[in-house]
Amino acid sequence: AQSVTQLGSHVSVSEGALVLLRCNYSSSVPPYLFWYVQYPNQGLQLLLKYTTGATLVKGINGFEAEFKKSETSFHLTKPSAHMSDAAEYFCAVSLSGGYNKLIFGAGTRLAVHP
Amino acid sequence: EPEVTQTPSHQVTQMGQEVILRCVPISNHLYFYWYRQILGQKVEFLVSFYNNEISEKSEIFDDQFSVERPDGSNFTLKIRSTKLEDSAMYFCASLYGQGVGYTFGSGTRLTVV
Fold this sequence. Notes:
The structure holds 2 protein chains of 2 kinds.
Chain A: E1 3-7, E2 10-14, E3 19-26, E4 31-38, E5 44-50, E6 56-58, E7 64-68, E8 73-78, E9 87-95, E10 103-104, E11 108-113
Parallel strand pairs in A: 2-11
Antiparallel strand pairs in A: 1-3, 3-8, 4-5, 4-9, 6-7, 7-8, 9-10, 9-11
Chain B: E1 5-7, E2 10-13, E3 19-24, E4 31-37, E5 43-50, E6 53-57, E7 65-68, E8 75-79, E9 88-95, E10 103-104, E11 108-112
Parallel strand pairs in B: 2-11
Antiparallel strand pairs in B: 1-3, 3-8, 4-5, 4-9, 5-6, 7-8, 9-10, 9-11
């Protein structure tokens, strides 16, 4: 069975500081990994995904994530936080094959303060 | 950019009533999904649909739930007799194929009173 653990339900950073949101997964087969962002009262927007190939994945809005198989991790980073990054971030995993259901983590709420 | 459209955005219904949540997936997508998010909790998979039939469903998706794609464009989720615990945000998603990220709609907030 697959699962996702997001460490830290709330993360607070200063504007301009590094953003690091942690995600660890469990999967018996090579996974596809995703990060989604949810702004208040909105749907889920894909930030980035890892399927195969390069383990460092770049997404929208300056975010990137690195797939580390040995650590079963897929942490999300952004070098410099912006106020507009304040949102809820969800890590998700699916079985490789690309059309299987997504299993979501519990989410991390990112606050950015001046 | 193509979008997944969900209607209504909010629905309030009385316990025991039937509700139908509607979704218009992206036109050339082949796989369709419903997820739900109870307030303050994680997003949970309900059901996936491909080639006009359910391909997988979760334990949540019991006999009170059904899905259909009646006309080749709409994708609906029906809850036959709503319970208080069905109150949640329901998200529709669609997918073209392998290796491409899922596109989610903006959700329907269902409140059962």
